[in-house]
From TrEMBL:
A single MF term (Gene Ontology): oxidoreductase activity, acting on other nitrogenous compounds as donors, with NAD or NADP as acceptor
Lineage of producing organism: Bacteria, Bacillati, Bacillota, Negativicutes, Acidaminococcales
Domain Nitroreductase, residue spans: 7-173
Keyword Transferase: no
Gene3D superfamilies found in the cross-reference section: NADH Oxidase (3.40.109.10)
GO cellular component: cytosol
Keyword Methyltransferase on entry: no
Alphabetized UniProt keyword annotations: NAD
Name recorded for this polypeptide: Nitroreductase
Amino acid sequence: MDALTLIKSRHSTRKFLQKPVEKEKLDLVIEAGRFAPSGGNNQTTHFIVIQDKVVLEELARIAREEFAKMELTPDTYASLATAIKLSKKGNYVFHYNAPVLILTANRIDYGNNMADCSCAVENMMLMANALDLGSCWINQVNWLNRNHVMVAYLKKLGMQEGETVYVSMVLGYPDTEDGLPFRRVVERKGNPVTYVNCRCNFEE
Ligand SMILES: Cc1cc2nc3c(=O)[nH]c(=O)nc-3n(C[C@H](O)[C@H](O)[C@H](O)COP(=O)(O)O)c2cc1C
């Protein structure tokens, strides 16, 4: 697949087979993330790769219990509101029971922390598509990155002092009819482009 087709055909996968991702494929995905650009070439993105079912269930439980304690207000961001509502009902699994959850953490005191993690995750999602794997960006862990229960557990998993999780993603084989990720190219309605190719926008 050429680069633009790979980019345009990447879509979020939210239904996964209970099939582990081979180590060779997982290593390639992580390598793609580690080779992302970083501000000032800092290379401080920390990849925490979780495949252990017990740990995945524990993370889902913590998130569910902590979201369930939150109150909804009219200003609550829509996706967070959904997480809170479903958690209060007791049936919320933020990682879609994917076989792999990758957390990207970075230094709290580093200005490009979120940007660097985002570059790494996009690289990994594209690599996943190249390998016929499904992936999806996951925001729920960073929504809880000041929650002491979640933070304590993330530290047990290897998050360092002075780090916070900024972006996460899930990875695995898509549960689709043909076993492949959904790849239809969906035309853009937004994301406008302004080409500046004359002096007409400048004042004389
Ligand atoms: C910043 C950001 C946050 C997102 N958070 C979540 C999330 O928490 N859970 C989820 O299922 N998808 C999440 N997504 C995926 C988007 O919903 C998805 O990329 C978008 O709807 C476009 O669909 P596509 O990825 O299939 O092209 C997020 C994407 C981005 C870029």
